[in-house]
Amino acid sequence: MLHETLYLTIYILTVAFVLGAVFGSFINCMAWRIANGESVMTGRSHCATCGHPLKAGDLIPIFSYIFLQGKCRYCGEKISPRYVTVEIVTAIAFVAVVVKYDVSFETLRYLVLVCMLMGLSLVDLDKYIIPDRFIVAGIVWWAATVPLMAEPWKLQLKDGLLGAFVIAGAMLALSLIFDKVTGKESLGGGDVKLLFMAGLYLGLLTSLLNLILACIVGIVFVAVLKQKKIPFGPAISIAVFFSILCGDQVVNWYLSLF
To answer: What's the distance, Cα to Cα, between the start and end of the chain in Å?
Structure first.
């Protein structure tokens, strides 16, 4: 029985890793097309340099990059390592969510959220914008999954709306004041919308933790990249991912100190 349980666990985590890599590949393509003004729904995948359509053998997540030695099969130009990195990171993220929530509706909710966060982060890295389509999709997905969660829907609705409006509203007010005083933009509208969407999933207290984590990650990005301006969407997304994995435990631990 123990061996059967172990084999089943390995099987589930392997499937999660493979699915994560596949969705990571799709998200890469989708984010690149959005950033470059191409249709997400139509057209074959193609090399970003020479434009040659890619065949099935060129699109195997992780393995194609390794087998092709990081180069386009048709023009020989180097393929950005970002593609394989996103595939690996998304695969690991899928495994982490499954480990945390097992096979459940919570897992489904957060796997889709991970995909949205990855997609908007990639676009933000390229264009310093967070497309509204990601925010709208995230809000709709939250509303659709509320009845499927173990927690009563009324409590989810109350805590989610508090997390969304209090945190995003406070940050909007502070950024407007800062912008007025300094004459510089401090926080983009897309970042405020992302904090709003994240607040729905996290609730009030975990959203506050999420905001603190996002600021810390943002500071690390500034120090590493040595840029005065950085896209804040990826920092928020990383913080959200940490928060859905262990945010409640951190908040409960902190509250237990008092």
So the answer is: 44
